[in-house]
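TASK: fixed-backbone design
INPUT:
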């Protein structure tokens, strides 16, 4: 359950490390984001000399969440951290070339096939 003011880890090599969510996209009244949903965040910590800088406002896809997520078969999946992958505003393609950590298949089913193909492990 990701909501505004949540601190998330950024799980790609774009240069950003930590971000703060300030908008969940989808509706004006939408409060929480789950796996595979878009959010708008501000970069709080970034590596020097990379594409994404501190204070940049970017869009991202939620790829891991601490709250247990119920799958259609009745099983639950849960991660140790809240994490996102930065995506391009126009195309929805990831900004980075590598994605770190496991990615649930719900992200691929939500229409982000390039994130799934760049990921090292799909759960």
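OUTPUT:
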């Amino acid at each position: 359950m990701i909501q505004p003011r949540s601190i998330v880890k950024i799980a790609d090599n774009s240069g950003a490390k930590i971000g703060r969510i300030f908008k969940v996209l989808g509706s004006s009244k939408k409060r929480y984001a789950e796996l595979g949903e878009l959010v708008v965040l501000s970069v709080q910590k970034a590596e020097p000399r990379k594409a994404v800088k501190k204070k940049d406002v970017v869009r991202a896809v939620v790829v891991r969440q601490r709250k247990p997520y119920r799958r259609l078969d009745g099983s639950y999946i849960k991660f140790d951290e809240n994490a996102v992958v930065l995506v391009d505003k126009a195309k929805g393609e990831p900004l980075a070339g590598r994605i770190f950590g496991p990615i649930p298949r719900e992200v691929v089913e939500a229409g982000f096939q390039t994130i799934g193909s760049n990921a090292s492990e799909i759960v």
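COMMENT: The domain at 7-122 is CATH 2.40.150.20 (Ribosomal Protein L14).
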